[in-house]
Description:
Elements: H1 8-22, E1 26-30, H2 36-42, E2 51-56, H3 60-67, H4 71-77, H5 82-95, E3 100-106, E4 120-127, E5 130-137, H6 142-162, H7 174-178
Parallel strand pairs: 1-2, 1-3
Antiparallel strand pairs: 3-4, 4-5
Helix pairs in contact: 1-2, 1-6
Amino acid sequence: xxxxxxxxxxxxxxxxxxxxxxxxxxxxxxxxxxxxxxxxxxxxxxxxxxxxxxxxxxxxxxxxxxxxxxxxxxxxxxxxxxxxxxxxxxxxxxxxxxxxxxxxxxxxxxxxxxxxxxxxxxxxxxxxxxxxxxxxxxxxxxxxxxxxxxxxxxxxxxxxxxxxxxxxxxxxxxxxxxxxxxxxxxxxxxxxxxxxxxx
Length: 199
């Protein structure tokens, strides 16, 4: 699915439609988007047939306490990191009993945070087949960054529901993938399959 696959509303409809058709349940973990991804999914009529729920873990300590993101990972890398996004996606699907989890983490701006400039973000999706993560470098103000990351998370989810990633990649395996595996966290603006993601 390409970047011009539609806006957030259209992508949310695709996600819900695919999940309902497959009998797949969804869960969402969000940091900088603070519920926007989950809200887009819930806007779709019939979302209750797929959406289990969502967790807004804005504070770093809640990523550990609620989503089981490893404390040592947070201490070493901070909350804005591809492995954190992957762990959030996997953690929320386990917490809420869903088949697939999607997550966002990053810096909305206007200034830098946690050693990263505004617009730096990661979105991840995780399921029984493993995980996929995209790195984003989004221009614009705070609202634009949050809207763009919301859309990219929905696009990532739609892609995964259409063609589940393989082979398996779980939280903590990102380093191996970055060294040349097919599911390396992409360089800023690319997903693991090379799709351009920055708007």
